[in-house]
Amino acid sequence: MYDVIIIGLGAMGSAAVAEIAARGHKVLGLEAFQPAHKLSSSHGDSRIIRLGYHEDPAYVPLLQRAYRNWARMERRRQTNLLSKVGVLQIGKPGSELIGGMLASCAEYGLAHEILDQAEMADRYPAYRLAGDEIGVFDPEGGYIRPEAAIWGNLKLATADGAHIHIGERVTRIERGATIMVRSPQASYETRKVIVATGAWISELVPELAARAPPIKQVVAWYQPGDGFLAQPERMPCFLSDEGEDGTWFGFPQIGVDGVKIGKHCHFFEPIDPDQANPPVTHADMDLLDAFAARRMPEVATTRIKAVTCRYTMLPGENFLIDLLPADPRVIVCSACSGHGFKFASVIGEILADLALDGGTTLPIAPFTFDRHMVG
């Protein structure tokens, strides 16, 4: 009999198994593939973290807790996971991105700098601004190394007594007097179960079949023509509001592959999670190359590779972290929608609270089944 079983050991599941094990409970983590595998949403060298959150000020308290938890994990692992190179948000003063970020900064007193075009050209010449665009710099922003974070959580979990099974896919959850979790290899009995299976969430939580579609995401890496400008000291991570062309994101040269660029949600192209990721097409490359040439030609000069991964999108691009209405012994976590990795350290804490205590003092009211099942 386990206290908790966690199904899926990606960003959120790995954080949850580490948190529950650290609290001294008997916990089993089951992963169908390998952690941070290529069909997941948790690989690719880097994920942006930022405190000035344009999506909604309601996320800021969770981010503040997430920063604390990432630092705690770094101390335990004695390694660096989060690099504060800053994040620039670029757009017109009245745009959703700039307005939303400034609203979060005002509500929570967050440090930030507003840079006009002359200041941007002087400090961050990698980016080309147009029209009346400005930059807003978040000094607390930067990037997290996702593979190191996931494997770090699993190492901490096993050190604290967790059982981890890799390559074991759960086929069903049976809810009786206790919960039985079944795979082709074995069956396990537990008091609580957390489902955090990413693109496969609706297989075990059919209520989400029409509300959590996985979509194709493409990112590309470019070698800079001017490597000096592409270094993190002169090129922070960025988000760019391109109006009708959506929101784009990118990273400085933090590895041998160069500068990384992507468009949030790309073409909103649905995928089958059980199939290999669709190949990168000419349309994908043309989209990314056009942005690189227009916005940062000196630092995103020569594309050397492009890869596909996947987002799992929920209505409004929010998170779902809640007890299953039909059975509160089942905790459901679909906490990405393309912007969730930075929260993994605090979501692991929330999932542990829900599984062990039946509730949490952390602010998750916007992320309930009630909110997602309306409409």
Key features of this structure:
375 residues; alpha+beta; FAD/NAD(P)-binding domain; D-Amino Acid Oxidase, Chain A, domain 2; 2 domains; eight-stranded mixed beta sheet; globular
Structure commentary:
The protein has 375 residues and is an alpha+beta fold. It folds into two domains: 166 residues, FAD/NAD(P)-binding domain, CATH 3.50.50.60; 156 residues, D-Amino Acid Oxidase, Chain A, domain 2 (2-Layer Sandwich), CATH 3.30.9.10. It is 27% helix and 27% strand. Strands 1, 2, 9, 10, 11, 12, 18 and 19 form an eight-stranded mixed sheet that branches. The protein has an eight-stranded mixed sheet with strand order 6-7-5-14-15-16-13-17, with helices on both faces. Helix 1 packs across helix 8. The longest helix is centred in the N-terminal third of the chain and has 18 residues. It starts with a strand and ends with a helix.
Give the tally of β-strands. Answer: 19
What is the class of the largest domain in the CATH system?
A: Alpha Beta
What is the N-to-C order of secondary-structure elements (H for helix, E for strand)? EHEEHEEHEHEEHEEEEHEEEEHEEEHH
Average pLDDT rating: 95
Task: Present the secondary structure layout.
Elements: E1 2-7, H1 11-22, E2 27-31, E3 47-49, H2 60-77, E4 82-83, E5 87-91, H3 96-108, E6 113-115, H4 117-123, E7 134-138, E8 142-144, H5 146-159, E9 163-166, E10 172-175, E11 179-182, E12 187-195, H6 201-204, E13 214-223, E14 237-241, E15 247-251, E16 259-263, H7 282-295, E17 302-312, E18 320-324, E19 327-334, H8 344-357, H9 369-372
Parallel strand pairs: 1-2, 1-12, 2-9, 5-14, 12-19
Antiparallel strand pairs: 3-8, 4-8, 5-7, 6-7, 10-11, 11-12, 13-16, 13-17, 14-15, 15-16, 18-19
Helix pairs in contact: 1-5, 1-8, 2-8
